[in-house]
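Design a sequence for this backbone.
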């Protein structure tokens, strides 16, 4: 099946779910709509895209096609069907995963956080394959233990070493991090985590040290120690800093009013706080200096002081 045929089929599936609509009029005149959906949670999606009563009653294939295009990031159906091969492959991958508005929101949030979209459609497609494969791997924690192998030795070490190579989505976990598992509510050093493998699909996942009694994975960890970001996640935050403070450019020299030292803005650290999970831009000399973004003034304005 071609990408175009797949998109047409999904629009028809969405229309079928839309056609299951039943309308209820309350005593006070309030109208609510309910759907016995199979493919797409249309009621949830309509709320997300702010459909009103008139919109929900306008049940047409063209409208379903338009919504399918919007879900995968296009303004209209015509843009989707005339997109590049890479863009259409990405759209098909996403539509195979999207059922609820939360699925769409999670993907958009991930794109914003990683900043991968700036590198083009091929980079986004590669990331999407990794992102959704990760979701598949997370599910193996629920398999019977006789279908799982707990890795030991170098295989376990290699899996944990990946986190210092930034192979985790947020880049916030490091091998020396202290973590808190949100499933079993226990704290431990990340390097104490177990690594399991699905014997049938050969997928691996880093899981809570208390597996199999706990089904938490590293995706459920809260990092308890400040974590310095690297790679794409770091540069995405630096770019947000430039949007907030126009005098900042990646190659601009800045003066930290806390430690009095100068450096290029692109040498600044980005640190994830364990308190709120937010990323903050800090002085190049963090943690010795606790200067932050608002403490970075133009070196020219500072008089070129060292």
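Sequence:
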């Amino acid at each position: 099946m071609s990408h175009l045929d797949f998109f047409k089929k999904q629009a028809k599936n969405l229309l079928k779910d839309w056609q299951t609509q039943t309308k209820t009029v309350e005593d006070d005149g309030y109208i609510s709509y309910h759907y016995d959906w199979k493919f797409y949670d249309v009621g949830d999606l309509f709320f997300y895209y702010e459909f009103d009563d008139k919109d929900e009653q306008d049940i047409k294939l063209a409208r379903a096609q338009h919504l399918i295009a919007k879900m995968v990031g296009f303004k209209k159906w015509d843009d989707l069907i005339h997109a590049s091969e890479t863009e259409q492959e990405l759209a098909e991958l996403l539509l195979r995963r999207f059922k609820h508005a939360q699925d769409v929101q999670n993907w958009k949030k991930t794109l914003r956080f990683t900043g991968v979209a700036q590198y083009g459609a091929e980079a986004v497609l590669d990331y999407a394959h990794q992102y959704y494969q990760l979701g598949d791997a997370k599910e193996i924690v629920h398999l019977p233990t006789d279908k799982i192998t707990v890795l030991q030795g170098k295989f376990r070490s290699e899996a944990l070493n990946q986190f210092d190579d930034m192979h985790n989505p947020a880049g916030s976990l490091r091998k020396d991090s202290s973590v808190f598992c949100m499933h079993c509510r226990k704290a431990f050093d990340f390097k104490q985590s177990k690594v399991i493998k699905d014997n049938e699909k050969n997928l691996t996942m880093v899981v809570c040290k208390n597996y199999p009694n706990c089904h938490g994975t590293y995706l459920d960890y809260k990092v308890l120690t400040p974590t310095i970001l690297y790679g794409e996640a770091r540069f995405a935050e630096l770019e947000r800093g430039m949007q907030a403070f126009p005098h900042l450019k990646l190659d601009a020299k800045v003066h930290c009013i806390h430690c009095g030292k100068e450096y290029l803005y692109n040498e600044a650290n980005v640190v994830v706080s364990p308190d709120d999970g937010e990323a903050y831009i800090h002085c190049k000399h963090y943690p010795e200096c606790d200067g932050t973004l608002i403490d970075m003034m133009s070196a020219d304005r500072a008089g070129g002081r060292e």
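The radius of gyration is 24 Å.
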